[in-house]
Amino acid sequence: MENKLKIKLSIADRVYPLTVDPSQEEGLRSASKKIEAMIKQFEENYAVRDKQDVLAMCALQFASQVEQKQVDNAIDGKQTQERLQKINDLLLDYLEKK
Questions:
Q1: Which pTM was predicted?
Q2: How many CB atoms lie under 10 A from the CB of residue 84?
Q3: What is the CA radius of gyration of the chain?
Q4: Phi and psi of 23, rounded to 5°?
């Protein structure tokens, strides 16, 4: 456990002690703040009393964002591949005419 940091993160009124690499600290603290902000937003906008329900809604929100990015990247990757194929076809046609 050399060069590890001991940090405490507060999420949904609970403190979670963690031992992390220094390179992870900023990301974890940022994620914790985003979760807290989302919890506050859900509590203000919906009649949710149970923290477990709010945390489940947060988890779903974050997971759906990750999944949507993967879907978007897959679509972009396919479109890029199609464009490259068209460019390749045009180059082959041009070279054959020479």
A1: 0.67
A2: 10
A3: 23
A4: -70, -15
Residues 71-86: tens digit of each pLDDT? 887 777 778 888 889 9
User: Tens digits of per-residue pLDDT, 28-44?
Assistant: 999 999 999 999 999 99
Cβ contacts of residue 34 below 8 Å, gap of 6+? none
Which residues have a Cβ under 8 Å from the Cβ of 43 and sit 6 or more positions away?
54
For residues 61 and 86, give the distance between their C-alpha atoms in angstroms, rounded to a whole number.
37
Contact 28, 20 (CB under 8 A): yes
Angle at 91 between CA 85 and CA 96, to 5 degrees: 125
- Tokens 């779903």 sit at which residue? 60
Q: Helices in the chain by DSSP H: which ranges?
A: 22-45, 51-97
